[in-house]
Amino acid sequence: MLLTERIEKDFILAxxxxxxxxxxxxxxxxxxxxxxxxxxxxxxxxxxxxxVLIREVKQRQESIRQFTQAGRDDLSLKEQNELEIIKSYxxxxxxxxxxxxxxxxxxxxxxxxxxxxxxxxxxTITQRYSGRTDGRELSAIVRELLTS
Length: 148
Fold this sequence. Notes:
76% of the residues lie in helices and 0% in strands. By secondary structure, the protein is mostly helical. The chain folds into two domains: 3-87, Uncharacterised protein YqeY/AIM41, N-terminal domain (Hypothetical Protein Yqey, Chain: A, domain1); 96-147, Arc Repressor Mutant, subunit A (Orthogonal Bundle), CATH 1.10.10. α1 packs antiparallel against α2 and α5 (96-110) packs across α7 (135-147).
């Protein structure tokens, strides 16, 4: 089942069960999918839908950071709840150990010797494991491996 279809079915189920918060988040995701679909002028593939979800996750994370800094814990909590719903549709994230192993494999595969090749390593890993890596964490791991 495509990701867009799964979200549509979950939306209908949440609507029937009167899960207001989940309905609102899924409605927002559906709107983001529709906007991307109009932009691309075609139906979304799973990879494109996943990109939309990743963008939504990043937006929520930034909002949480800003609300927390501003002392608005109520809004931060609301964003956190939305983030959890969105994350439930993403593939399971890689553990730090898995990221370190994968980064080492990619560095060897691409024959990268120093920090100048970090961008290529990062790009390769994020493409292969789309939606499963945290960019900041991965960056720190790759930097550590290339400088040691």
